[in-house]
Sequence to fold (227 residues):
Amino acid sequence: EVQLVQSGAEVKKPGESLKISCKGSGYSFTSYWIGWVRQMPGKGLEWMGIIYPGDSDTRYSPSFQGQVTISADKSISTAYLQWSSLKASDTAMYYCARLLHGYGMDVWGQGTTVTVSS
Amino acid sequence: QSALTQPASVSGSPGQSITISCTGTSSDVGGYNYVSWYQQHPGKAPKLMIYEVSNRPSGVPDRFSGSKSGNTASLTISGLQAEDEADYYCSSYTSSSTVFGGGTKLTVL
Fold:
């Protein structure tokens, strides 16, 4: 079964760092782009960026460039999303998803809730 | 990048058909045949319903169909069922990136 399994919920304070993960299984992890999507409470989906685990080629949405870092470790079929200094406005659900050729996202992780509060 | 424009809400009765529009520009929807549609039930991850304008992934009922004309894409759901009640999002490829629509809440009356 093709699946993406994300790390668990996080509660952090403003200014702290964080790295969440997304582990793929059931397919060739290095052959598909992986994307990250933010969903703030009660709001819509926002495309953050993507990574190709095969060579770590990474592309960011202009809205998220410089705000987060996307990385991957192909040896363990895992992609990451990290922050160096969290803000309260980073509070959201974060999804990873596998990309098809036309950037459609066909397999989604279960989501990771990030809460940033003092 | 501006979000694609979707109606905030649509509604229909069981058995009816509804259409959700998704309007962009020539830089996204109009420029590529890479429009996708997602269904999201409350508390769940989104699910891909249509990709590359009109293709259905395996397992998606053929009641769901997609099309595009110019800068506007559309998702049509025929034979509406209670379980179709959800939020629907469109997305489009644009310059090595993707932009989502604001989402449409579908209510099955």
User: Anything to note?
Assistant: Chain A is about 0% helix and 50% strand. The longest strand of chain A covers residues 18-25. The two ends of chain A are 40 Å apart (CA to CA). Chain A touches chain B at residues 35, 37, 44-47, 59, 61-63, 95, 97, 100-106, 108-111 (CB under 8 Å).
